[in-house]
Design goal:
Shape: globular
Oligomer: single chain
CATH superfamily: YVTN repeat-like/Quinoprotein amine dehydrogenase
Largest sheet: 5 strands, mixed
Strand order of the largest sheet: 3-35-34-33-32
Structural class: mainly beta
Number of domains: 1
Strand content: 25-35%
Radius of gyration: 22 Å
CATH class: Mainly Beta
CATH architecture: 7 Propeller
Length: 558
Amino acid sequence: MDARSLGPTRLACSARSIGAAWAIAGLGCSDTAAGTGGGTSITAGETSISSSSPDSSSTGTTTAAATASTSDGHDATGTTHGPIFDVGAVDDSGGSDTGTVVPSCKVGDDIDAAQPCVDVAPPDSFEPDVQWAWPGNNGELDVLGTPVVANLTDDNGDGEIDLCDIPDVVVIASTNTFGGGGHLYLLDGATGTEHLRIETPVQPILYPALGDLDGDGIAEIVAATPGDFGGGGFLLAFHADGSLLWQSPDGTQTSSFAISLADLDADGDVEIIFAGGVYDHTGHRLWTGGASYLNTAADLDDDGDLEVIMGGAAYQDDGAVMWSGFDTQGHPHVADLDQDGSPEVMFVSSSGITIVDANGVASVSNAASNLAQWRPAAVHDMDGDGAPEIAVGSSNTYSVLETNLVANWTAAVSDGSGYAAGTAFDFLGDAAAEAMYADETTLFIFDDSGTPLLTTPRSSWTQWENPIVVDVDNDGSAEIVVASNGGAAPPVQVIRDIEDRWIPARRIWNQHAYHVTNVREDGTIPTVQPKNWDTLNTFRTQAQIGAGGGVCMPEPRG
């Protein structure tokens, strides 16, 4: 298609571009933006995106204003709002005489199996709209890690925090002090309104994690105290209301950029993986392994417990080495890449890509060209053939590879400064997920040939961040959350299709190593983590939600 110009920023793309110019970011590009004032109209060719006063209707089919709601899917005035998906068993005895099902506010075992997906969006459903843009606060305009999303506030006033509330976006913002402190902010997922700022300083170059640590059914926020570049001194855990749950008495041993949560030994208590160590749910260090920027956990030996994968090695849940010998700075990913029913571990680093079987034997490797620093990857079926592909970036390219590491396509990007990751989501429900990447200046969504479907400006030194897909406003349609730093774009933007036609997605993204089965939608961590490779076979991507509210998987094409 033609190039679209919105405001002072002009971008060329094959569909439409969003010009969320920083000059108007505080006002937003639609009436859903936090802090919206008087009317603002921005014309883009034949497409007009306007913002008006906060009480006006949105340019899309729904508004993102947070309304008080009850658990039956109506707001406090009795007006029906968008669908609220049940992730548990559907009670088909409820609802009206028209057959409408009353949704549940409580989570079920939505991650044990994947039903067939049925939702399909029109092929032209890439007409983007900035739902809201958070302008930062207290001079803290730099977000160096991806926001995380879960339900943390009682938005409908029923006395409970559950799936009938609006999800919340948790972000660490700072003043560009790499070794100094930033602060955690909780933002309303529908409007970007700031719920609270946690006053305890935290490490800004960090991907925090969300998960229920104390067993009350509500996710806690796990971050770290400020430390040297890339590393926090001590883990911190906060309640959803911002109060401190604990500070770890044991300092971290190495630099790290991301926190992972998992119940490693299936005893009902969550463990925390960070900076080469494993901590219990009260912050006490259990054991220390090798240095690692990133980490994950998976049941590699099928014994019911999870192994920790970090620093080029795999460890049993008690810290015993299962196997080792790979690049200590390799970013780990787990999926059934050869579709033999068993998981593989893929390490991505400046040395290239190495695929290792569950026993630690390398099967495929590909040296990085020109010493390019390969970034954390995403695994998903991106061409609809029923088999997984790998989406991964380097300093100047973003590619989708087959699992033999041969590229299906490669697109030019600019990411010479950091370690940004990508993701993917099947926005249209056509069985082929769109790969997504954000470099130093632009967020891209690519089709299955590598052609950009959508581009939107952002700015970043590209640290440990990636765009995420989540139903951030509980309206039954996926949105994109993207972070920025450097001052040329809003610190956090939420982007939707202007008519909310994108396929329903889960309402949670809780950590860097997110792979759906690692967390329930209510933020609780499963005691026995279902094997993602048995159903979805994805990593660092979002799942679709089916008609009954559970995770679904589309049938392969043709």
